[in-house]
Structure formats: structure tokens, C-alpha cells
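To whoever is covering the structure queue this week,

Two jobs came back overnight. Logging them here so there's a record in the thread.

Job A:
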Amino acid sequence: MVTTIGGPRVLLRQLRETMAEPLASQERLDKIVGLIAENMRADVCSFYVLRDDGALELFATRGLNTESVHLTTLRLGEGLVGLIAAEAEPLSLDDATSHPAFAYRPETGEEKYNSFLGVPVLRAGQTLGVLVVQNADRRHYGEDETEAMLTTATILAEMIATSDFDNLIKPGSDIDLRRPRMFNGVSFTDGIALGKVVLHDPRVVVTNFIAEDTDAEKQRLDAALASMRVSIDAMLDHGDMQPTSDHREILETYRMFANDRGWVNRLVEAIDNGLSAEAAVERVQNDTRARMQRQTDPYIRDRLHDLDDLANRLLRVLTNTNQPAHRDLPENAILVARNMGPAELLEYDRKKLRGVVLEEGGATAHVAIVARSLGIVAVGQAQSIVSMCEGGDDIILDGPLGQVHLRPTADIEQTYIDKVRISARRRAHYAALKDRPSVTKDGVEITLLHNSGLVADLPMLDDTGATGVGLFRTELQFMIASRLPRLQEQVDLYAEAMEIAGDRPVVFRLLDIGGDKVVPYLRSAAEENPAMGYRSIRLGLDRPGLLRTQIRALLLAARGRPLKILVPMVTETFEFRQTKQVLCKEMDRLKRAGQAVPEKVEIGAMVEVPSLLFELDQIMPESDFVSIGSNDLVQFLTAADRANPRVSKAYDPIGLPRLRALRLVVDAAARHNKPVTMCGELAGKPMEALALMAIGMTRLSMGPASIGPIKEMILNLELEPVKAAISEALSVGANGHSVRNLLTEWADKQNLPMG
């Protein structure tokens, strides 16, 4: 094996000195490739940069024809250099020309070189370019030399990220790291937001890359690892960390990785090659991220997030950087995060927050629900966006399309500025409709209500003209709290909600936690299928103190006014009767204490468990009203996890089987003369709302932003012919057409606004 001259530490010191010299970009690059060639005893050293058009451009060389610099290009995946860039893996060959991927470029004069070693230049897991050394003699580049090249590439990546290369770049192209990017995610809310990136959990920026004393750096690494392991163990030993919680599983994964000898050995090896401890963490995580990003297995990608978080945790210890507090936001801030809970979102200044982008999460996640309530544009499942953006980057969210434009070009930005102006005009148009009765052209009155869960969004009742709140999610108060809200805290929240609503009714849904609605201070055993497990009214009836306290709080908050209570996830009628008994006992208790009770209490059942479809004639006489929770009902009817896009998108919620199930509820409510309201996400989408009205549903509850578009559609709608067409389809089938296609045809016939 041929060793390098002086070793990688000598080369790194030379590179650091070169980077500090007052040189032009091209002059600096030329000197760097020369230093690498000399240190590696190579005849050739070349550096290729990946441009935003997918081409790898030769930026500097020592040994190849200098005329080929900025002239020679290879496509991603083309030739040995393109292969390295595409796979983000080193490649060592003693006879490069015999490799099937070899691509000859005559202008370079490289035909006389046989040996080849190329490594990817990575930053944040992204391939920025390729660093290559070549020799005329056949030579085997060993692991030590490959490691030395990878270490050198780490420094080169930082140079690319922090230096000005504009004078070297061809017009119309850019270095890949900072090029505009577009992400196709999942829409959480409507609306468009333009602003600046604020990282919810920003990466630690490494500034010290080169070790002065490798032994000292290894000692720093050992101390940081020990400190991190102790902190993880302490969190695992915390009293609130039950053995079966999801949080504990995550920390157990962290502990496993933190004690993995292979990971630690790679860190030590990077330090031995001349990197500082923090640069070693960055280097190893770059390599790991580059490999794992190319995996399709979702389990492996989840582990990548764990490793990213662990590496960032270790970097915070090494750099003595605390977890960032929620600082003052810039105007038009857009949060970017892997994931976050509703409580974390509510900690930010909502006056400056315009949008949220998540790498994970589904449209029914509770952070998405809170974003809708606050009128914040939100997009989820924007894969790898956290590693590809930096604080202060320009960013645009297209809510309806679920698209994110990072560092948009000027023409894209102007397009969205125009869209925002049009959207403002549309909002003004909807505002002009707020006082108009929501009645179809053929005289059918449709009641439009808000879904809510935060006092902050209740003033929007005045803006939209909605007639009340069809669903107030009381669990959000529990989810954002660090402990169980006391009786008076609940009373204050419910009373404030009723005060803001005024004469308009508010339907308070009893606590619906469990499943994906995690409340860490309420311990429960782990479940294989939590959506169908110990949650909602099942939990409330099993913990009567919790249920009684909430019902008492609602009764006290009413202060003599009418009160509406909704019981979630009723599976059988007897559960509803049990809940009514608790309500009656609390009413009697208040009367005996001489306290005011509501002048009228109405209690309704939420239809979201399919078994209740077969007890409709039993539950209706017991209820004052019923509401439909389409999110869970559709999930259970289709056996498709609503948070799993691979299956949930396969089942149209207004497909014939689901629409028939919904009509069962509407028909039963009509037989028993009980009002029925749709409270799920379906009601806020024009096409879905049209389907609901077509089966006879006249009460729709939705997010505030949906009221205007739905009302405009209603005002232009002649409902009876659509009802007749859907009734026939439900009875005899749609003749090969989907319900959605049938409704689209009617929307086109009547020229309905469906945007």
C-alpha cells in the first residue's frame, strides 16, 4: 500500500492555510488540487462540482489538460465520476478504463492514466461534487488513502458552502447545494405563504474542522459521548417515562446508537485523519445520511431521522450549544421541522408565523389541525427538506397543491406574489358573502359551522358568518399542557369560548385522547393498534374522575346558558347511556350545591365507529343530536390507516360504499327527527360537501377558511337534480363512473365554483 506524504493531518493544515489566503476562487481551487495530488503521490487530482442541471462540471485539475476545466461535463450517473455522485460511495480501481461505467473525454488527456480513486463530496447528506486522484501506474488505493480523501472532501464541502463561486459558474447554472428546490408533499391546509425559513430545531453549525491535537479531540469526543449517554439515561429514568411509551422507545433507540461501537469507531477514525471531534461527527453523519437516503425501506429512513437527531445532540454537547429556545421570529416566518406537536407550534408568535413545513406527519395529525385552526398554511411529508435548507432561506408554501418551493427563482416568486394578490381578492369576495343566508338556488338551507379547538380561532366566527361551532375539540387543551388541566382551568377555557361565541351555539366534544393523540402525563399501556384501542369515551368511562371533572367544568362554564355536549367514539348505545348518567349526576350535584345549571343541556353521540351504524335506531332516541366523525369512520370502514398515504389515498371517502354508510345516518336522523352534522374533514372540501348535501345532509362543520368557498358553491347550486342523480347511483350503481366523476359532471353543468 502506498502511503500519503506526511499523512492527512499535514494536508488538512495545508488546506486550512490555503483557505485563509486572499486568493480568487479559481486560484484557490487550483492550489488545493495541487496540494492533494502532491500529498497523495498522484499524477492527477481533479474536482468536479454537481450543478443544478444535474451535470458534473470539471472545476479544477492538476494533471489533466487545463483547457478542459469548465468545459468537461458528465451527467449524473455517467462515467466513473457520475457513478460516484449518484451512489454517494467511494470507488477505487487499479484499471479504470476496464470498468463498464468508464466514459472517455478526449479533451482531458486522461487516456494514459490507469489507477483511479474517487470520493463523493458531501454536505448534509447531499452530493455536492466528486474529488478524484489518478495515476499512470496501476496502483491499489487502500482504505487509509480512501479515508484520507473522504476527510479532505469534508473540508472541500465546507469550502464550497461558504465561498463565492459565482465567477466560475456558467450562466443559468448553480452549485447544487444552494440551487432552488421543489418538494411535493401533502396538503395540510389551503392557502399560500411566502416567507423565510426558521428551523424548529436548527442544525449545529461546525466552524472548527481541523484538529490541532488528535488525542485531545478524542478525549473531547469521549467526554461528550459520556455526557450524552448520561442525559439519555436520565430521561429514560424520569418518572413520567413509562416503560411502554413511544417516547421511551425513541430514547431507547438513541441509547442503542449512542453505544454502538461501529459508529464510535468511525468517529475516532475520522479524528485520527485530522478532523476535529465535531467535524468527525459531521463527516460520519454525512456519509450515513447519503447512504440511507437512497434506501426505500421506511424503517431505514426512520432510523436516519434517529441518527440525525442523535448526531445533532452530540454536536450540541461538543460545542456547548443549548437546545434553542423559541426566539423572536422574523416577519413572515415559515417553520421547517421533521415533526412537531401542537404544543410546540403554539409556543411561536402567531402574528409573525405564516406557515409550517414538516418532513413527517399526516393531514389529520394534531399539529395540522392546530395549523388549520390558526389559519397557518401547512404542508407535510416534504422529504429531507430539513437537511436541504438553512435559516433565512426564501421559501414558498402552496397549500392546495402540497408543494414547497425552497429558494425559488424570481419568476416562481413573482407567480406566487400574483397568486397571493388574487387570493386576497378572493378573501374579500368571501367576506362580502358572510352575511348572506347559506341557501341553494332551489331553496335548501345549509347550516355552516366551524370546527375549532382553540379560543384563538373563535373570533373568526365574525369574519366568516358561520352560525356557530359544530365541533370544539376539548382535547387540545390537554395535549398542549405539561400536566392535567385543573377544574378551574377547564372552566375558564370553556367559559371564554362561550363568551366569544355569544349567542351562537358551541358543541363541546368530550375529551378524545389516546390513539395518535398522545398526552404524556396520562399513562397508558402500549398498543399494537392504538387507533382502535384505549381512547376517547372508553378511557373516560374507565377513568370516571377524568370524565366527571370535564363534565362539571362544562356545566359550570355555561353559567346558566344552554350547553351542547358531544360524546366521541360511541361504539354501543350503553356507553352513551353511561355518559348521560354521569351528566345527570353532575347536574344534580350542582343543584344541591345551589349553583347555576344550564337552562338547557343537549347531549349528542358521535358516529365514527362502524358498529354504531347498526344501532342507529337505538342511539337516536337517546340523543338530542348526532354528529359524524368522517376521519375515523372512513378509516375504520376501509381498514386503511388515515396517516398512511400508501393506503389512505386508495379509498375515496365519498366512494359508493362510504357514501351509503353516511346516508344510513342521515336517513335514521330524519326518521327520528334529530339534527345531524358532519364534523370531519369532508365537510370543508367543495366536492365532498356537494356529496354530503346530495345525500340529504344540511349541517356542515369545517375549518374557518373553508366557509367562504363552500358558501359560494352553495349559493350557485341547484341541489335537487344532484340529489336525484346521487340517489340513483347509490341504489343501482354509478354505471362504471365514480361518485366523484358524477359530481364533477354536475358541477360543470351548473358552473359551480369548486376551488
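Job B:
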Amino acid sequence: MSPTREVSVVLPAYNEAATIEDTVEITLETLASFLPAESFEVIVAEDGCGDRTPEIAERLASEDDRVRHFHSDERLGRGRALEEAFRASEGETLVYFDTDLATDMRHLEELVQRVRSDEYDVATGSRWVPGADADRPAKRGIPSKGYNRLVRLFLRSDLLDHQCGFKAFDREALLDLLDDVEDEHWFWDTEVLVRAQRAGYRVAEFPVEWTPQGDSKVDLVRDVFGMGSQIVRTWWQLTVSPRLTRRVSMAAGSVLVFVALALMLVYLEPAAVLDAITGADPALVAASGVVYLLSWPLRGLRYRDILSRLDYEGDTWFLTGAIFISQTGNLVFPARAGDAVRAYVVKARRSVPYPTGFASLAVERVFDLLSITVLGGSVLLGLVATGGTDEVVAAIAADVGTITIGGETLNPAAAAETAMGVAAGVGLVAILAVVIIVVNARRDTNLVRRGVRAISNDSYAEYVAGVIERFVGDVERVVSDRGAFLRVGLGSLAIWTLDVVTALIVFAAFGIEVTPYLTAVAFFAVSVGNLAKILPLSPGGIGLYEGAFTIIVVGLTATPGLTALVALGIAIVDHAVKNLVTVAGGLASMAWLNVSLTTAVAETEEASASAADTGDEAA
């Protein structure tokens, strides 16, 4: 749209029935004091309000042709409401300020003229530059300064105040910037200013007199979840992603894969690994790897069933490859970042939206935890609850003593005790999660929205609640469906049974007779070991798995030759075989699907924007 007016002022309004009429009147009077008649317009960007704001805005527009009402039936978010109103505006210079008029309106002419004179492309009021007069109590000033310092540090901004709601833009410059701005809520101001500086636009920051209107406090959802995650997202887009060329990405991805292979040698010295496998039958160790490999197509089938319940189809072999890649990523990247890699792969190759991709992963994790909790049984909870592990831990400490891993002296008994506690907690959380999901699915009351509102009273909480509702809703569709629950549950039990069979073959490779009782103990030991490594307390779960496995096997058996050191060796080889199969499958799948781990992690930044769209639709 070609500009037909000199200035357009947009007032973002959400439930402003008490103040919007006065704000519009003051704005019109102030603009008329320094601009020719009919050269400006005031747009009330009413954002899905639940009060009388729409009626008031419509009346004001009908009474004065300088006033326009931009209405939305649904909650768009502050940033998106501003963006759509600006695109529909008629002005050459575009302005907005908060409707509470916290910034003294005597600064409006200066704000407009800095851009209208062609001296700057963007102008913003500031409460922190020298000369500003801002009455900010500590509860507002300290978080604001902290936030702005983070933006300056991570996003290399030269400005001191990014969130002052008092800004003006050259129309052409802003519309150019909006093509790249992704945030639709409170971070919108910051992202526009940061991208303007990166694009070389001239940005003016000038002091204003600012008086806080109403009460404000740090909000967990908006300030921590929202603003913090957006700083990280923008930093990745502007600083990291441009450097991830295909050549760099492929090279870095290859290096990281080999790092995954070397993790066992970093955290378990080569000599310790060699000692552990001395005397083991190589053919049986290889056979254990083949058996473990058989579990992977089952993982693909299970994932296909989950996606099918969520109305997305995928062939088993493709999904098996995607799982291989994501699990390899979990060995390489911290905090199970490989899960995000799978979400990227199924989105890029099968158009599965990010919220659904992450929900399907959550379903898989829930069934994994339930399966290994069931396989571990009540014995685990009984041992931990009664302190029955104390004597076993003491026996292992006397038998094994301490060992050196990665140049550090560790106490296997202490590690095992930690692993047992972690396993018990994770198992209980898994059961509790399923109970909550099923209960929520059968209630009329929206527990998600109630929970979010309990920790946040900001309007941004509605957006976050919408994203979480979509996510939880997808999980509920599988968990609350009896047929899907049975199919996915049986598949999960089969997968983890093969995991145990792999360990039993390793027992045989060490010359240990596999009796029915030892088989039962192995089910318990492998289950506890896998529960223990769910939390990302060590790379690839190394250490916790071995500790839990050792304490269970030695504490519950009296098999000749099965000392603590031998049990530790079995645990090391068992875990090593599984990790090697995972990495080998990951390498093959990356070559087959032409996926680089670093590219996949970089591309998952789109999840935020996609989730935002979904959240707006649901809110």
C-alpha cells in the first residue's frame, strides 16, 4: 500500500476499555499540535479483547475519520497486532506507543520528527540513557536492566533500552524488517531494534520522561520462558546460523559423530574398557549387537503407530532412520538435544508440524518410562523405600573400592546409589504423568490453562497455554485411546525386552551361566539402569547405567564368578555395544536421508515460530 498520510500512530489495545477513549483523544490533540490537519491517522489495534474496547474503538472511528479500528476476533499477540496494523496503515512515518501513556506525550513530536526528517530510520524513547527521567522502582528497574544487558551481550545491540513502548519507523524500513521478525508478543520491540541495527538502519535512542502506570512484576512465563527463549532464538539466527554453511555443517557433523564414538574412551579409559572385555567371547558380543539391532525396526513401527494416531503417516524404515539419527544426537549433544533433531527430520521430510513432532516424542518417552518401570517392577521401589540397598552398596564398596575413569577417581557404590534414587524418581514421575494425562483427558476442566495461570497472570500466559494445550492434546490422543495404548505399550515392552536379551548375551560372553533367576535380575538391572540415565546427568548416560546395573546384579545374585568387577565389565560392554550400534545406525541413516546433525539442530529454531502460530490458533 502506498502511503497517503504523513504519520500513522498505532495504539496496541488489549482490554483497555477504561482508558482507550482518553488515550485516543490525547493522541489526536498532540498530533494536531505539530502536524497539518488530516495528515495523520490513529489506529486502535484491538487484539481480541474480552471487554468493551471493540465497541468503544468502533464508535471513535465512526465519529472521527482520523481514527481507524483494527479488529481481531482472536488473540494475535501484541507484536503481531502491531505488525498487521502497520501493514494496513497509510502513513509514511509509523509510530506506536503504549496506551497507558507512561511516556510523557510532550516527546511525541521529537519521536516523529527524528524519522520524518529523514535523519533516522528508527527512533525509540529510552528510560536508561543520560537525561532520561524514569521513576522505576527496584522491582521493575532491576529486571529491566538485567534484560537489556543480556540483549546487549548476546545480540550485540548498542541500545540501552529495548522495551520502552515509544517508537517510530520509516515505513519502508519497518516493512523490510518485518519480513524477518518472528516474535509476535513482548519480544517484538527488541527483535525489531536488533534487526534494524544488524541491517544497517540508522537508529536513534533519546531520553524520555517516563512514569509507570499500574503495578508490574517479574512474570515467570512472559519474562523467563518467553523473553529468555527469544533472546536465544535470535542469537542463534543472527550469530550461529549464518556461519553454518553446508560444508561447515557436514564437517562439524562428522566430527561430532566421531566424538560420540570417543565418549566411551573419554569417560572410560581405554585400559578399563580393554580389561572389561578381556576373556569375553567376541562372537557372543557381536551377537548381542545383532539382537540389539533388531529392536530398531520395532522402534520405527511404534513411532509409526504414534504418528498415525496423530493423523500423520510415515513408512517404518524412514522413521527408524530418523530415530537412529536422533539417538545419535543424544549421544553427542547435551540435554537430549537429539530429540529436537528428530522433530526436524520428520518436519523436513514428512511435513509433521513441530508441536506434533515434539508431542509424538513425548508419547514415546512416556511409554519407554512406563515399560522399563513395569519391567523393573515393585522391587526397585521397595528397595529404595526400605533402604534395602544400603548393605549391597557397602558390599560393592568393599569389593570394588574406587576406580579411575577419565582421569578422575570415582566411587562406583556412590554412583550406583545415586542411580537407584534417580531411577525411583523417574519411574514415579512416569506413572504420575500418565495418570495426570488420562485424568485431564476425561475432565471438562482445563488443567493446563489453570496450571499456567497459577504461575502467571500476564496475557502472554494465554499464548503459552495454547501451545501447551496443543502439545498435551496430542499426547492425550494416544494415551487415552485403549487400542493405541495397547499397541504402543506392547511394542515398547518388546523393544525393552530385546534390550535385556542383549545384556543376557553379554553375560554369556563373559562365561556367566544365564539361569531363569539371573534373567529376572537382568530385567531388573537393565530397567533400573535405563531409568537412571533418563536424566542428562552424564554424556550418553555413561556411569549411571553401569553403576545401577552393577549394584543390582551383585546385590541380588550369588552366581559363582560374578563379582562386582565382572558385573561392572558386563555393564560396560553391554552399554558400549548399544552405543556403537546406535552411532553406526545414525551414520548410515544420515548418509541415506542426507541429514547433518548440526544443520538439523540449527533448523529446529523454526520450532518457536511454528509453535507460536499453533499457540495463537489455540488461544
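Note for Job B: The mean pLDDT is 77.

Please reply-all if you pick these up so we don't duplicate work.
Q.
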